[in-house]
Amino acid sequence: MNVEISDLASTLTRCKPLLGTYVEISVSGDVADETLIEQSNSAFAAIQLVQSRMSFHDAFSELSVINQNALNDWIELSPSMFKVLSKINQLNKDTDGSFDPSIAPVLLNSGSLPRHQSCNHDAPIADVGVWSNVELGDHRVRFHSPVVLDLGGIAKGFAVDQALACIASSLVCTVNAGGDIGMSHWKNQSIDILFGTKNRRATKEMEMRNSCIASSASYRNNGRSVIINPKSAQAQKSNNTYSVFAPDCMTADALTKAAWLGAATPEIMSKYNASLLVIDQHGQSLH
Questions:
Q1: Domain boundary pick from 143, 174, 204
Q2: Among 79-88, 152-161, 277-286, which is the least confidently predicted range?
């Protein structure tokens, strides 16, 4: 990643374990170091808030409360959760059901997600791809059948967006959450995209096409795909790396899963002002 900061007086780069990965935030500007620290603290706090609300691994998160109780009654939503679920609602329609976070039962069964008492484990493996049974109201949600949601396919990107929104526009900022990246000043910048397999990895330098990029690849999970096709309830394998450039990281994050499943059509990418890059295990660009 190349960022010209020669005309800026100070740069602060910090890294913390969050969202099941390492989050690095770099802030630069002609300001006091204390200001950079305050700005990065605000960005990390925003990410921590998203984690506390949307983590499947946290038995007391807002998501866990939804999974436990939404079958019985309406559940009031925080503004952030409502925004994410509304985005999922639109993406589910646009991808003909390919983007669907109700695949959680499959991930529970494979051990990719933890079992805890606050989760509705009555949803059988067959009951995936059932986003149509999720009803959104005015900042509230309810389920019309046993549903278990996992927001792992979109929450990390949303967290990057929330972090960037905390940074003053006069500063240069990059947020990198395990490969989900947002840049405040992205034009004429480049990014190293990791590709390959579990045992052989390399990077390919590409020019940034938009302010955010997210990637999905099986090497991230020891070669085991956690991209579930909601129409078959089966993991869909691929050795390719699917990267999406978009104006916001939440959209980029979600569309990488749609791309993996073959649902990121040119029409959909155009609608979201996004572009797709597919790199095979040998480093060849396929798209």
A1: 143
A2: 277-286
Distance, CA of 106 to chain centre: 19
Provide the domain limits for residue 194: 186-287
Same domain? For 223 and 133 the reply is no
Residue 171 lies in a domain: no
Question: pLDDT digit string (tens) for 29-68?
Answer: 999 999 999 999 999 999 999 999 999 999 999 999 999 9
| Residue partners of 61: CB distance under 8 A and separation at least 6 | 52, 53, 54, 55
The reply to whether 192 and 137 lie within a common domain is: no
The answer to whether residue 229 is domain-embedded is yes
Measure the CA–CA gap between 142 and 133, rounded to whole angstroms: 8
Pair 245, 277: CB distance under 8 Å: yes
CATH number of the structural domain spanning residue 86: 1.10.3980.10
Q: What is the pTM of this model?
A: 0.91
Q: Is 205 within a domain?
A: yes
Residue pair 174/163 in contact (Cβ under 8 Å)? The answer is no
Of 116, 143, 170, which closes a domain?
A: 143
